[in-house]
Amino acid sequence: MPASPPHTSPHTSPPPITPDAELALEQAHLERARAELARMREHTLSLQADGGDAIAGESLARTLWLRARALQDDPRTTLFFGRIDTDTPERLYIGRRHVSDEDGDPVVVDWRAGVSTAFYRASPTEPMGVERRRRFGVEEGRLTAFEDELLTAGGPPGAQGHGEGQSQILAREIERPRIGPMRDIVATIQPEQDEIVRADVATTICVQGAPGTGKTAVGLHRAAWLLYAFGERLARGGVLVVGPNRAFLEHVGAVLPSLGEVTVRHTTVEELVGHAVVRAVDAPDVARLKGEARMADVLREAVWGHVRPATEALVVPRGSRRWRVPAYEVQDILDELRVRGVRYAAARAMLPQRLAHAVLVAMERSGDSPDDRVQDAVARSAAVKAYVRSVWPEVTPQAVVAELLSAGEGLEDDQRAMVWDRPRAPRSARWSVADLALLDEVADLLERTPSLGHVVLDEAQDLSPMQLRAVGRRASTGSLTVLGDIAQGTTPWATGSWAESLQHLGKALDGDDVHLEVLDRGFRVPASVIEYAARLLPHMAPGLGAPRSVRSHPGRLDVLAVGDPVAGTVEAVRAAAAHEGSLGVIVPDAWVDRVGSALTAAAVEHEVLDGSHAEERILPVHLVPATVAKGLEFDQVVVTEPAQIAEAEPDRRSGLRRLYVVLTRAVSGLTVVHARPLPGPLAGEAG
Ligand SMILES: Nc1ncnc2c1ncn2[C@@H]1O[C@H](COP(=O)(O)OP(=O)(O)OP(=O)(O)O)[C@@H](O)[C@H]1O
């Protein structure tokens, strides 16, 4: 690829040039890239949407419109954030999207292109042909600085080398205040993260990572990369992101659009398997039982148990004659459909034609020569319809699950706790979250669930085996990116082993195309805060380590013993609000109203983050129920009454894990406000 002016022949007798002049040249290249992008856009707009017929024309017009929109320049950001000079006379500017000049030569290369890999992965030990890596400091669409790293001894002179992890630009990016929703990390993806982002489309990757190690960021960038690299293959099935709640999806929802991907759907597990409205909450032991994988066998039996043995002959009157298919022949047909692996409803749909065929054979045996129209007519006859209804009745997911939970037939003794206190018809059933996964399982037994191309499943540790099955069947012919942290599992059915979770998702960890990766460099939580939260680990996730904070800022940690926890929280919020950036006030769920009123009375403007609604995060102070905090982050965090937060969970382990989640949301400062004694492990009690 030729170098572009003003940087022709970069490696031959470089002129002595000051950093300011160098930066001015880079800014000139940026302006040139902007001009080329504008030209590309104008060219697209000038194309006629003439696709022959009206429909083709409309579709082409839409494609062109989308393309023109994608080519719109965003003056708030730069078109490139990095550059690599290779050992061939090649210089590549790496950016969010591809820009080429009139001759089709690249001015900026998309970060997802194969040639950009070296920007992220090259190191002094493995330079990958890169002599110099340059990172740009960016402010409001202008280049403000650059930083060079020389990766080979023979690299071009005049540059300053930076060792691994010493990049000031990376440090600034990590240390910046977090305002508004999550941003992309495309300029600073780390080598270990890039390996995950660019794993082959057929590969299912499971990432175990402590809080703030970039799991969510990596999963979203992987989705963007897959769509770029395998767009056509994925276009049909699509890519889906599954997250724990609406507040989380709102937090992460801007990342993919900022990378130019607007087609990826974001959903929660409950929405994904939304066969009913949730109107009941199960006791934890019941929810755990309903979430167990053995429910899949119970439900399979329950569905197929509806197929009754053929005890009577099928008799079809036609004209003056009555045609008869003996019961044993019908039974053979039923058996054949059952063992074929066809779904219940699909098999039921085939049954009339099979029975009609048997009638036709009987007609032929007696000398008739009926044609296919006769077979169709027999298949649609009242006699065949009635017979099908009697041996292979139509069922719905709601009916099957309501019947099971009303009567308990097929359940083991220890599963009977899930049986309702009185029988209910499907319409009067009050479904719980765990029931949704049961309904989904039945829906799939009735009709095969279509598979997507790729599913990114975040906070996967919290899903029950039945929920994992529901997600897995949506990637049955595709692949998954499974993100989570066993130490942050707060549901009673949270996983203790990724091998098991993957199995429920339908992917075997020992398979060639399934990998487990561990991320341990923490980009969010500063060292003092992580050390504090890590006191909990030996008590609720022995064997799992805390992240190694790569933040240079040690962070602020204040643990305040107060008389009144609500008044204490308001004081702490006032003090924390003096710092820059966003502020999360994480309180026991039951205290949201109380703390909210106290904040309002103290004239602290705030908004409540609700797990079931996507809120606009406009105000800098967010009041967050403890159970909604997972996956979120704020510059300053105030955590109110840890003992109460832990006690609200059904068991001690889940309580301490919930606490670990809320304590690890802070980017810069954490204030813990407590009136009651802190839970033992947090107060330093040995593990
Ligand atoms: N390579 C990177 N460069 C800059 N920032 C990064 C990088 N990787 C992660 N971050 C930032 O670190 C923060 C934490 O990332 P993220 O939320 O993806 O972590 P996580 O592992 O999903 O955390 P949790 O388990 O707590 O949900 C985010 O602000 C993210 O933008």
UniProtKB/TrEMBL annotation:
<keyword id="KW-0175">Coiled coil</keyword>
<keyword id="KW-0378">Hydrolase</keyword>
<feature type="coiled-coil region">
    <location>
        <begin position="23"/>
        <end position="50"/>
    </location>
</feature>
<dbReference type="InterPro" id="IPR014016">
    <property type="entry name" value="UvrD-like_ATP-bd"/>
</dbReference>
<dbReference type="GO" id="GO:0004386">
    <property type="term" value="F:helicase activity"/>
</dbReference>
<feature type="binding site">
    <location>
        <begin position="209"/>
        <end position="216"/>
    </location>
    <ligand>
        <name>ATP</name>
    </ligand>
</feature>
<keyword id="KW-0547">Nucleotide-binding</keyword>
<keyword id="KW-0347">Helicase</keyword>
<dbReference type="InterPro" id="IPR000212">
    <property type="entry name" value="DNA_helicase_UvrD/REP"/>
</dbReference>
<feature type="domain" description="UvrD-like helicase ATP-binding">
    <location>
        <begin position="188"/>
        <end position="526"/>
    </location>
</feature>
<dbReference type="InterPro" id="IPR027417">
    <property type="entry name" value="P-loop_NTPase"/>
</dbReference>
<keyword id="KW-0067">ATP-binding</keyword>
<protein>
    <submittedName>
        <fullName>DNA helicase</fullName>
    </submittedName>
</protein>
